[in-house]
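Notebook entry, structure prediction.
Reason for the run: the old model in the group folder had no record of what sequence produced it. Starting over properly, with the input documented here first.
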Amino acid sequence: MKSLFFLFFYLVITTNVSLIGSTQITPLISNTTKKTCLFHYWTVYIYNEIKNPITVHVQSGDDDLGNHTLATNDNQNWSFCEGITFKTLFYAHFYWNSKIAFFDVYTEYISDTYCTEREYRKPGRCFWLVTEDGFYVGDRVRPYTKLHDW
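New structure, fully documented this time:
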């Protein structure tokens, strides 16, 4: 019985992901839904700063958030509780005209290096900017860092 309870508890902690959806830039910070997590709560935003629509497909080992077409200045965002092992991983495929890119958009390294500082019981945020010359990540306070080209 104890092992069944532990398994249930582990599954609840490690699979708590919810898609918030696309929002406009203005209500970005105030529109975030509060979640209760044992560890850290994160929201990742991907903004299209290209003049043409792009398609983004975000996944993790447990969740497939599907394809989302983002118009100029539109964003896709999702929130999740970081797992007990701090090994949460989300990756994304990006499609723009004939160009394709694929890389990790959330890892412990990315969150520790480029996103808001990790604080107990405070939501963390990562912001990705998709531009014609590549992909930038940051926390909206420090300058963004280019991590990938198309």
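Summary: The radius of gyration is 16 Å.
The old model has been moved to the deprecated folder.
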